[in-house]
Amino acid sequence: MQEITREDVNILVQLQKAETETVRIESFLKKIENEKIGVEKELVTFRTALEEHKNALSQSETLCRETEAEIQMLGERVVRSNEKLRQVKTNKEYQALQREVDDNRKRKESLENSFMQILETKEANEAIVAEREAELAQLSEKIRADQAEIDKKGEDDRALLEQYRKQREEIGKNLDPSLYRQFNQISDASGGLAVVQVKERLCRGCFMSIPHQLYIEVQRCNSLILCPQCNRILYYAEPEENTVKAE
Ligand SMILES: [Zn+2]
Fold this sequence. Notes:
Order of helices and strands: HHHEEHE
Strand order of the largest sheet: 2-1-3
Largest sheet: 3 strands, mixed
Bound molecules: zinc ion
Strand content: under 5%
Number of helices: 4
Structural class: mainly alpha
Number of strands: 3
CATH class of the domain at 24-165: Mainly Alpha
């Protein structure tokens, strides 16, 4: 069994305090980093939707242009055919040309009828794109501000984290290297909680009830005692007599 002193235990408890703060701040910084990614996602989704609206607008613009060009072309064709009609010699020729005029006119009328609809769609798409672009500008601004605020929230903690990391290292220097290594291993394996108090005979790491003999050894503080269940370093602290309970 590894021998330790009361002093070692005190150092371990100090080390754990710095470790707990380090882990807490690291987890907080990770959380706010995810928050930043989360708000960025909102922007990406909005941009994707805007791109779809822009595609729809571009399609309706093309359709509008093509329909207009076709209407104009059919109109010119009708005019030309009408001119030719005046010059035809045979009845057969006349009928054929007349049919062509009728067909072109019908097609033109039909296109003119649908053109209003096409134009309305195009204008509606233009309005949507303009509106969404304005919204995107606002959203981008809001998200940049949100992210800056999130960054600011983390600023103090990043500085504090550095402090605790240094503190942890300094405290560690006072420990026997093998004990320090052991602390680090247990901490890595136990979510940053390597040293726990035994209070009312319970391990405060896993809440297992500590066997009587082991409890006495923890109180004696002569050797390194690990919790049989969670494998954390156990220590005993005298109940503070002067503690005044609230209420
Ligand atoms: Zn335990």
